Amino acid sequence: MEYSRFGDKFTRHSGVMQLMDDLTDMLRGSGDVQMLAGGNPGVIDEALVAYRESMARLTADQAAFNRAFANYDTPQGRFEFIDALVEMLNSRFGWGISAENVVLTNGSQNAFFLLFNLLAGRDKHGRLKKILLPLTPEYVGYADLAVEEDFFMAEKPLIDKLDERTFKYSVDFNALPDSPDIAALCVSRPTNPTGNVLSDEEVAQLDTIAQQRGIPLIVDNAYGAPFPSIINVDVQPTWNENTVMCMSLSKLGLPALRTGIVIANKEIIKALSSMNAIVNLAPGGLGATLAADLVKSGELLRLSHEVIKPFYAEKARLAQGWFNAAMEGVEAYCHKPEGAIFLWFWFPGLPISTMELYQRLKKRGVLVVPGQYFFPGIDDPDWAHPHECVRVAFSPDNAAVEKGIAILGEEVRRAFGKSGPLS
């Protein structure tokens, strides 16, 4: 069948589709698969108990149950949750927002599809406006969200080796392009895939650049502060009228509820609400209903800081240790794990591409994501770095992560011509 240009673009092969296909294969298969490719959050019993208790309170109240399940929300989302969130952010951080500054979406991916295509693409004069990614590598899910082709501008990062096994990316502010074709800046904090966390100073500098150019700064805060707080460095969550802050309930351990949150100026919120009405009628309200009670009681922040944050910090520590052991005898680096639920591995001079490495690992039941998908807007065939990196999720069961990293180590050693499996 011949599709439209829109249909062709959204049905072709993409990094995020490969990731979801891998997830599907894992769920349907019966073999021993180490699924280290996906972004599924870990199973945290204490958090899930709190969510079940919230659901039990909801189902025990017939009127509340009816409101949650038997009614459409407004295109802006469920105001019980929005009002609770506004109160929490204002009282804790002094943001000074109102309910008119918040809209809910059917997950963060849906939010970014709406946002990117609202702000960038062909304008009424036919000019192609683009999203600037100041720091790559960046989230694989951004790359194919735009209706238009050639949608992103990006810069290579500064790379600093910290010690024999770790390194860190940072923004090369001197190289950031200044073009009237740029419609917005966008960063994730913590960054998926690397776990990098932009400092407060870096965010402030990006905000200054965005305001000077009269364009928004979009901050993807799916893993950050104040919730789910999967972040290992001290940062201050900030917002102003020029910031578009995107949050989510997914990494709290509720990805099936598909609840995204956008906090922005009233003009952008009104526009996104209109898009919600056309595309979705209204966002799903179950996640917002479930979380409203937890926000009001303060339980959401307690779980984030006392349960979720230390859970992932310990898993990152363990996974980094397994990586160090698995890569004995080869040059290999792990990006400093400052947040999120992934480790980002770099193998300088790898004799094969990480796409080939991915295929070899897949044959052995280990699924990772090759690095080449995480550099939208970078088109430099002579730059080997994207083909020397892989993303590995450490959110699955520890035994699966340890086994998967050990097999990864064996295949990397094999590629470099090192003999024998690891002991």
Protein architecture, described:
The protein has 2 domains: 156 residues, Aspartate Aminotransferase, domain 1, CATH 3.90.1150; 233 residues, Type I PLP-dependent aspartate aminotransferase-like (Major domain) (Aspartate Aminotransferase, domain 2), CATH 3.40.640. The model has no long low-confidence stretch (mean pLDDT 92). Helix content is 39%, strand content 15%. It starts with a helix and ends in an 8-residue tail after the last helix. The protein contains 12 helices and 16 strands. Strands 2, 3, 4, 5, 8, 9, 10 and 11 form an 8-stranded mixed β-sheet that branches. By secondary structure, the protein is of the alpha/beta class.
